[in-house]
Structure formats: C-alpha cells, structure tokens
Amino acid sequence: MGRPEGVEVAKTRTRGLRATYSRVVSGASGRVLVVDDNKVIRQLIKVNLELEGFEVVTANDGAECLDVVHRVCPDVITLDVVMPRLDGFGTVARLRADPRTRLVPVVIVSACTQYEVESGTLAQVDAFLAKPFEPTELVRVVRRLIERKRGGTGGRGVHMAKPVRVRGDLLP
Fold first, then answer.
1. In sequence order, what are the residues at sequence separation of 6 or more whose Cβ sits closer than 8 angstroms to the Cβ of residue 143?
2. pLDDT one digit per residue (tens) for the chain, 172 residues
3. From CA 108, how far away is CA 51, in angstroms rounded?
4. What pTM value is reported for the model?
C-alpha cells in the first residue's frame, strides 16, 4: 500500500505528478529549468531567478526533467543530486547522451560533497553551487553559463560557485 497523498517523507512530498512549468515571459534573460524534489528549494531558486528577469520552469525530479526538457528548451538546468525516481547524476548522464541536450549547461545545486564534485566532474557538469547558497551567486552562475552558451564558447569548464573542501584541499 502506498503513502497517502501529501504525506511528508524525508525532504520530499509524495503526490501525483503534475505539470510544473511556468508561463512564457517575453523579454526574459533566458530560460532556466530548475530541478529539485524539495518544493521550498525549488521555489527559492525560481523566485530569485525570476526577480532577475529569467523565465523559470520547474521539475520535481530527474525523471520529470527528462519529460519536459525538450518542450522547455532551457538555456541552463539547475539540478539537485539526491532525488527520487532519477537522481541528479543519472539525469546528467541522460542529458549528455542526448544530442538535443548534450550542450545545455548544468549546475549542480547540492551539498557538493567530495563524491558529488568528483561524480559531477566525470558527468560533465558545468558548475557547482553548494547549499546553502547566496541568491546573488546563483544568479551570477546562471547568467555566466547563459552568456557562455550564447557566445558559442561551448567548452565545458567546471566552475565552483564557492569554495568547497575536497580531500582536505580548498577548491577556488
């Protein structure tokens, strides 16, 4: 027997899937697909990006991201790592394997543990933003990735949004 609708489980809410994309915003700075199973984090990212002129579309997990990514055609995807159904690394692997999405910049927004940084680097993630994050840093990273994508530089250079300790060393 499944859990009743709306029952709190860890950091997620179990409920039926529903479309979560937002309206089209004319004159937007870019379109961002925000993927996180935590509704509060999703909303926090969405509001901060919308305040800076971005059109934001949301998805509850990696599986929903893959369902909507071709309809949404985002300029950047922000992605949590630990999610139900399909985690962040599985999602990145599928995005990179698809010729239509392989060049879409991906920002991991997570705790950025040593494992996450190493796995994300191998998966060709473009940037990491450690939780908790500063909203201004979120906007800066997203804006920079959109500019890089539109400028056609195309090369993947991993960016750490703020210093993260990896194997005892502090990364810039």
1. 29, 30, 52
2. 443 343 322 233 333 444 444 444 445 689 999 999 999 999 999 999 999 999 999 999 999 999 999 999 999 999 999 999 999 999 999 999 999 999 999 999 998 888 888 888 888 899 999 999 999 999 999 999 999 888 865 545 544 454 433 333 433 4
3. 21
4. 0.75
Comparing C-alpha atoms, which of 84, 98, 95, 147 is closest to residue 123? Answer: 95
CA-to-CA distance for 46 and 80, rounded, in angstroms? 14
CA atoms of 138 and 168, how far apart (whole Å):
25
Contact 162, 131 (CB under 8 A): no
Q: What is the C-alpha separation between 134 and 151, in angstroms, rounded? A: 26
Distance CA 23, CA 90 (A): 28
